[in-house]
Amino acid sequence: MCGIIGEISIGRIDIERFVQMRDELKHRGPDDAGLYVNKDENVALGHRRLSIIDLTPSGKQPMTNENNDIWLTFNGEIYNYVELREELIKKGHEFKSKTDSEVIIHAYEQWGVDCPKKFRGMFAFAIWDEKKSRLFVARDRIGIKPLYYYSNDHRFVFASELKGIIKDNRIERKINPTALKYYFSYRYIPAPYSIWQGIYKLPAAHYLLYENNKYSIKRYWDLKLENEKPDESLIVKDIQKLLEDSIDCHFISDVPVGVLLSGGLDSSMVTAIGSRVKEDLLTFSIGFEPQKYSELQYSRVVADKFKTKSTEKILSPSEIPHLLDKILYYYDEPLGDSSVFPTFLLMETVSNEVKVALSGDGGDETFAGYIWYSDFDFYRKFGNFSGVFKGLHSVISIISDKFEYKMLRILKYRLKRLSVRGLEQYRMIMAHRFEESEIKELFSKEYYEKIDADNVIENYAEDDLMNVKDLQLLDLHTFLVDDILVKVDRASMANSLEVRVPFLDHPIVERLMSLDSKVLFKNKEKKYLLKKIAAPLLPSDIIHRKKKGFSAPIDKLGLIDDNVYVLRDPCVVKDGILEQAFIDKLVHRRNSTDRAKLWLLLLFELWYRRWRVNT
Q1: CA-to-CA distance for 441 and 444, rounded, in angstroms?
Q2: SS3 readout for 205-219
Q3: Is 2 a residue of the active site?
Q4: I need a surface site. Which of 196, 238, 454, 542 has the fewest CB within 10 A?
Q5: Contacts for 437 with CB less than 8 Å, ≥ 6 apart
Q6: pTM of the entire structure?
Q7: pLDDT at site 615
Q8: Phi, psi (rounded to 5 degrees) for 137
């Protein structure tokens, strides 16, 4: 796992500046640094190395082939590299190392731009092909590893993180209004947008070609949704075998590996199967103060059952200032997920003992485990009566505006859910966020009028009455990639830790998405198939306990009340982005719904203060 960066320019590259940009990613790879510059000094590749496989100098990057005309900088892991290496040797390729990096080089030589289809793993890599004067950049199927890029008339720059690109103070930092709308609507920014105008994310399962001072982007893999209804006993065995194989190959490493154990079903399954692969398995868990928000009692049950060497950490209010400063730097794009705090603290703890850890992320998307899948299935039944509920909502809204009773607010919100359909209902069920009318009032006129009409999230919404399978696909393409995986990648790599996600092995994702939703969601039970697989392995109270999200109790930790003062004179208002009047309204009311919105405002203001000025 590493940090990668590169630049192509019409003129000569400022190499000293480029090295500074590369080293802005040092946290992603503290073990070594590498640099390639072509003879004309108009192409540069940079690399920061975190040594996981083949710890010898032969794993140094940027890496080249035997002819020195193909150069690679690579972030990630290719889990089937041993099999691919053998296949490529049979085809006449010669290897000088035992790395998965070199497999990518020879795979490109053999299969060209189709090579990502051969890889099983998580990756973002770039290849400079000197003979063709072409840059080839690719990102893994699910989007586990990040890749940003910037282009203008005379240069193209890419990097693992935004901070690597904007370290160059010639690149203007100007907020993208469309990206900001997504942040306030969903709490994250979906690809291809980034928070800065002119800088984009390469979407998952896509590759980019840059040649003749122009770039093009193409999708190389997509999920094929089918509706198979196989015999239950057979599909349970099939999925179990795929899961065991995935967890087994995700333990491949030349350094110690641990497991992030929350006590939920997904991480408990990784622990259960992983304990068969690794003796004296290391597990790491986190809890909160107050303890009623913790899940440590469940993670302890699993750790005891499988006799793991368990490490626990408690997130207390006193640690918030320390974490907030770091998070505002390492999350160089605003992310309103409160679980960044426990995630970051857990990664700090884990990195003291291991360089690699497995997590249960992706289990909710692949096995249909989110709470909103059940909620959406319930509300879907009332789709034909949305007009009736819209009228009732209007009446209750008038009453609740006059009488501030909690039950009226709850009723108003639930009627609102029933009065809308499709994507708007999905957005509301996930959490309290800004509606379109509120965004229009919050944004300055200048910024609101510049919002792009295209809705990249809506592109994945099939229709107004989406079923569970539609929601899974939507989450796999959006929420998972640009919230969950970003949260984990930044927190782990900030602490020079590699986190692997076996539930997102693409053979598992493909197989599960080929099944009918009634197989995955039988009797409307979330994670039905995974629970069947888990039955012989885990205690019943772990399998069937009520799902608890990993979000931090931001109110109990003082995150809002301790920082709300920054909204009295915010920079985002001074710079003409947002309107003070609407912010003041939220600060004054500060009810439960508004507090969730205040959190997004607070985080954006604090983030903006940290990053708005070119340094």
Answers
A1: 8
A2: CEEEEEECCEEEEEE
A3: yes
A4: 454
A5: none
A6: 0.93
A7: 44
A8: -125, 135
